[in-house]
């Protein structure tokens, strides 16, 4: 068998800035001398440009690496020549030093030396250039050649490959951190500070939202500058959303299995730099310019009254498991950053991505909270949606709502004031935690998604679940002082079918992902309206558009915080792909040409009108749960439910199969007061949801509920008439068309 030494390329140590000539393609070149390094300071962590002793400008480097034996900061010039500078100061497990003369724009990385003992979790390898976890800009893109692995990836016996150290230099193959100078005080910015109850969230991908937009200059498409462009902002304003939730914009890397298939990670749920805006989304440059471009995007959205929420992935990193690459944390202090199994060669994986950050450890918790505060205070963002948040709430093994992570967030003076959204599950045992997160947190409510999908495909056994979801999910959130806006209601998200595909496909079609259609969920709760995929049958197409109107209307009339997905309001399709995480192409991008088609334009107009209706009427965005009790002598309650006979629902009605549900919202019994202390009073509404495939009669409730009703929304109609609409007398029986939502205002 070939020996381990023969499997490794030489480390190329003379090229390390030792002051000795180095060989490059057979030639010799001079390496710059190592500059002086002063002691510097252990805080703040990362590379910070500042004025040092005697007014000398330079950069302070500080890296936590508890078990390391030596740390060198490596500087790279424009030709890629490397200068290695030892950091000899060690304070509280932080290696640090101030290097005079190092200016913003300087590219750098770290080499960290220590024991190689994978059986105990020690994986130090100074041949690997490591990205600073606190790097605020990253220049270059991650590929995954064998040189970037700390172990010999192609070792003949793969069962022990991760235990054989690879001595080849990874520096030519990995991106570098960039020193960034930030003196922006945000004094010219005005955050919208939209109350939770008034929020309408719009989930979008920076690249996918802007890539095909005809109003954005071609050179700005797919970038932060593209999202800041007036053409992009105008669409958001016309739609009426109050916040954009950006799919991950932390610097991320692509997985090996995708690169081997000629694909890339498009969504970005594979973070490697928690302080750096993803460089590929920058139009202005990647040696620090991406930071300013991101800030200008935030300012442009704030100026339009739109908040910026980041989807963040702190549960795992792009370094995967023991067979993954060595890019940053794994080579800095593997045991300090990651959860390991009892067999310390292996990683505890609660994420399905190969590793899990060990958030219980103080330094890992500091990394995450420092990152969060940085994005709020220095990058201007307004909140975060935490991917697989249950993994962050695990103490040692079990999910713990008193965990250090949640406790720190709750008392942090910066973070407790921003919007916090949990994806309240992970893949580990006991990981499903919907309804369990503490006050301050809102949650993605997948029970809302499932109930609404099932109702409109007529698959619910009764209407109990639907009643809870329409009225704010009090069964999940009415505890501990939580409010209805703890529920982020959604029918679709980036993960799964688009809204149009939900009514066009009965099964997933993920062949383009190269995994033989094995990836993606099979639990889609979809209905294709009688034909699989695109159809030329106008009856099928018309039914699908009606179902889209039903789903959007239900979402925007429900109590809680609605979340839309970019493009759903204009009929975007992924051609049946319900896991488009690797589709950086027309499958994953928003098709803006749909707005030129009358049917899809009408869908956009309806969505905008429903959002405007929601903004005008506080009864549709309550700040407290319904009581269901009569507040006055006439017996009128803040919430009442009706059968198609016009009678209030009994206990038995809730347990009986039904396709029709009437929901009465009283505008005179809204808890709370306005900013001046006056009672909040609004119109009252009756919503009738009918999922049956045939028309049904519905008797409109009489006094004390109403004397007359005016039709505001009728989803059976393609082009919505503007109010005032048809007026019906209370007590009259009206015909509700098949598969329709009627919204009637009490006149």
TrEMBL record:
<dbReference type="InterPro" id="IPR014756">
    <property type="entry name" value="Ig_E-set"/>
</dbReference>
<feature type="region of interest" description="Disordered">
    <location>
        <begin position="509"/>
        <end position="533"/>
    </location>
</feature>
<dbReference type="Pfam" id="PF02922">
    <property type="entry name" value="CBM_48"/>
</dbReference>
<dbReference type="InterPro" id="IPR006047">
    <property type="entry name" value="GH13_cat_dom"/>
</dbReference>
<feature type="domain" description="Glycosyl hydrolase family 13 catalytic">
    <location>
        <begin position="203"/>
        <end position="614"/>
    </location>
</feature>
<comment type="similarity">
    <text>Belongs to the glycosyl hydrolase 13 family.</text>
</comment>
<keyword id="KW-0326">Glycosidase</keyword>
<protein>
    <submittedName>
        <fullName>Glycogen debranching enzyme</fullName>
        <ecNumber>3.2.1.-</ecNumber>
    </submittedName>
</protein>
<dbReference type="GO" id="GO:0016798">
    <property type="term" value="F:hydrolase activity, acting on glycosyl bonds"/>
</dbReference>
<dbReference type="InterPro" id="IPR013783">
    <property type="entry name" value="Ig-like_fold"/>
</dbReference>
<dbReference type="InterPro" id="IPR004193">
    <property type="entry name" value="Glyco_hydro_13_N"/>
</dbReference>
<dbReference type="Pfam" id="PF00128">
    <property type="entry name" value="Alpha-amylase"/>
</dbReference>
<keyword id="KW-0378">Hydrolase</keyword>
<feature type="compositionally biased region" description="Basic and acidic residues">
    <location>
        <begin position="509"/>
        <end position="525"/>
    </location>
</feature>
<dbReference type="InterPro" id="IPR044505">
    <property type="entry name" value="GlgX_Isoamylase_N_E_set"/>
</dbReference>
<feature type="region of interest" description="Disordered">
    <location>
        <begin position="1"/>
        <end position="27"/>
    </location>
</feature>
<dbReference type="InterPro" id="IPR011837">
    <property type="entry name" value="Glycogen_debranch_GlgX"/>
</dbReference>
<dbReference type="InterPro" id="IPR013780">
    <property type="entry name" value="Glyco_hydro_b"/>
</dbReference>
<dbReference type="InterPro" id="IPR017853">
    <property type="entry name" value="GH"/>
</dbReference>
